[in-house]
Specification:
With 345 residues, this protein is an alpha/beta fold. It has helices at residues 29-39, 52-58, 77-85, 89-94, 103-115, 129-137, 149-163, 174-180, 182-190, 205-217, 233-240, 262-271, 280-294, 304-311, 313-316, 332-338, and strands spanning 48-50, 61-66, 96-99, 119-123, 141-144, 166-167, 196-200, 222-228, 274-278, 320-325.
């Protein structure tokens, strides 16, 4: 079955994965535990809250993992702190560079500020202004380039090679994946009864980290990734068993990639239970619902896990379901667009 460990290989441990990445490069539970110890002085565990209104709406026993309560409003800061804390002296002196639609960039900017490292973040020209302002306030240099994440990423890779920066890929970094996997440890410690964890997927680091932890702690837990049907590159790559590109027209920038990332895909193909797509309309409905029912600001990508539950209620009915609210960095324009002015009778 898709998402199960390779035959004959339990977890923890490293699954057999073909390709040019050797097995020791793949993070496992020990790496996630080490990451938790590493980031503990800088980041507190986030809440896991239940909301009776969401239980009634979905027919589940639902808990929300509030990664929107992180210092930068998103889960990725866990990976950023874990990675930057491990940089060598030469890498710190050269500075780091990365590309992002915003939340990964904030995580690198936050960690670089914490450890006194120069950071340069490449973002699309129409990047979320809330996230751009946050990165600048954290001391990062911002470079606008291209129409989407992949344009910015390609430019960042070229400049990093030319300038000697330590390039931080937003997905193909074991330390990022083991860092963000720490929120899954918190979910299972706070709520051992969890049967399903639903995780938004852009590049896939969160889903990969969650699957590593779940398979090690209790293999029966389902880990389900969710992406927008308007940006399905990661989903299609997972289905195909190889990296593919796809259109990227989603309004949820945290899910917006045209290409998939090798390392998260390798892990997700091995360990993810399932992967689903949701419509843009369901994403918008889920964002409105999260804001109304939890009284939290939630960005569209952060509502994707709830969107998956709303889109297929029979699958989750009566079950103990943890959904990851991956971020809360919604811009005023996005917030206004969720509730368009009423026109006519």
């Amino acid at each position: 079955m898709a998402g199960q460990p390779s035959s004959g290989h339990g977890w923890p441990g490293t699954p057999v994965i073909q390709g040019n990445m050797t097995a020791p490069d793949l993070p496992d539970l020990a790496d996630v535990l080490a990451a938790r110890a590493r980031i503990a002085p800088y980041l507190r565990p986030t809440p896991l809250h239940g909301y009776p209104a969401l239980d009634a709406l979905t027919g589940t026993r639902l808990r929300v993992k509030h990664e929107n309560h992180q210092p930068v409003g998103a889960f990725k800061v866990r990976g950023g702190v874990n990675l930057v804390s491990r940089l060598g002296t030469d890498e710190r002196q050269r500075g780091v560079a990365s590309a992002s639609t915003g939340n990964h960039g904030q995580s690198i900017a936050y960690a670089a500020n914490l450890f006194g490292v120069r950071a340069t973040i490449f973002v699309p020209e129409d990047a979320n202004p809330v996230k751009v302002e946050s990165m600048r306030a954290l001391g990062a240099d911002i470079v606008f380039h291209g129409r989407d994440f992949d344009d910015a990423r390609e430019r960042c890779e070229k400049v990093s090679a030319a300038e000697g920066y330590r390039y931080v890929h937003s997905g193909n970094e074991p330390l990022l994946i083991s860092g963000v996997g720490t929120y899954a440890l918190e979910i299972l410690e706070d709520w051992p009864e969890a049967e399903v964890i639903v995780v938004p997927v852009g590049g896939g680091s969160g889903a990969a980290g969650t699957a590593i932890v779940a398979r090690a702690v209790r293999p029966s837990i389902e880990v389900i990734g969710v992406q927008s049907e308007a940006a399905p590159a990661a989903f299609r790559s997972w289905q195909a068993g190889e990296l593919v590109t796809a259109a990227n027209t989603t309004f949820a920038e945290g899910l917006a990639t045209r290409t998939a990332f090798d390392l998260p895909q390798r892990i997700m193909r091995e360990l993810l239970t399932d992967f689903v797509l949701v419509s843009e309309e369901t994403l918008a409905e889920a964002a409105r619902t999260m804001i109304e029912k939890t009284r939290n600001l939630v960005e569209p990508a952060g509502a994707a896990a709830l969107a998956a539950v709303l889109a297929d209620p029979a699958r989750f009915a009566g079950r103990s379901v943890a959904i990851v609210c991956s971020g809360g960095n919604i811009s005023p324009a996005q917030l206004t667009a969720l509730w368009p002015a009423h026109r006519g009778p």
